[in-house]
Design goal:
Two copies of one chain form a homodimer. With 130 residues, chain A is α+β, with helices and mostly antiparallel strands. Helix content of chain A is 47%, strand content 18%. Chain A has a single domain, classed as Arc Repressor Mutant, subunit A. The structure holds a DNA duplex (30 and 30 nucleotides).
Chain lengths: 130, 130
DNA sequence: ACCAGTATAGGTAAAAAACATATGTCAGTC
DNA sequence: GACTGACATATGTTTTTTACCTATACTGGT
């Protein structure tokens, strides 16, 4: 087993005695974020990386994982891509949302609404007992 | 690398073609939930397990991880525990929140408020483009 | 020629969550 | 009195998700 005395957690870090940095993050939030950005217009990976902070993913999107995720979304038929030769600079692979991807985004939106309710419920209960 | 064609994801599952089950969950949400329940009154592990669904953790809290988490919280001084001999039935270890644990809960509440904003922002942008 | 920014990609480690199993108490019942 | 199921705590292992690190190549400016 791994019952570590002081786990180096991603979501929690002890800054100084009694003072914590806590991050409450939604699991796999990059995925719906990519789908949302791609619904607005086709983009390539690097552009997506630059735009993700707009959605709250500040400085914490791993570029390697981003490209992997894009390719796995394509394998699942949620996005489609092609090399874009027209644009200047290094070769860019431009992704666009498929109809399936759009439906998945709708699911994510529903799920995120439920998550909001869950958090709201937690916070209400938290405020009650202050 | 692991670029799996059809990832067996926790947060996403294809039910039938084009139909997905999506779960948007907050990372490590069990932790603040335990702290909140323990702020209300001391409880033992099994009781906590029974009460977690009230906070939206339905049928998805692993009992093994729950006990591990409780012990690691104790190692960090966030909760304290002792065996409760009075109560009938199998031996129970009763946990209560420490002052440190209370402060961590406050941090979690702040973080969850920020998460709510992030989700709210996402959903606004989602609704705009419908 | 060199460097910084753009662009894509793979390898590996660590953290988080899920899945599986073990051990013992106790109350009711067949 | 053996058996069953709910209560209670705990460990071991695997899978999934995220973080960290490295490699490659094109392009524009100095």
């Amino acid at each position: 087993m791994t019952h570590r005395r002081h786990p180096r957690s991603r979501s929690r870090r002890l800054v100084r005695p009694g003072h914590w940095h806590v991050h409450a993050r939604v699991e796999r939030f990059v995925e719906p974020s990519l789908l949302l950005l791609l619904r607005e217009r086709p983009l390539h990976g690097y552009e997506l990386l630059e735009r993700l902070p707009e959605l709250g993913l500040e400085g914490r999107v791993d570029i390697g994982n981003l490209y992997r995720l894009l390719r796995s979304l394509e394998d699942e038929g949620l996005v489609s891509s092609e090399w874009n030769a027209e644009l200047p600079g290094p070769a860019k692979r431009t992704y666009e949302l498929t109809a399936q991807g759009r439906r998945l985004l709708d699911r994510w939106a529903e799920a995120l609404r439920r998550a909001q309710d869950t958090i709201g419920n937690f916070l209400d209960r938290y405020e009650e007992g202050r």
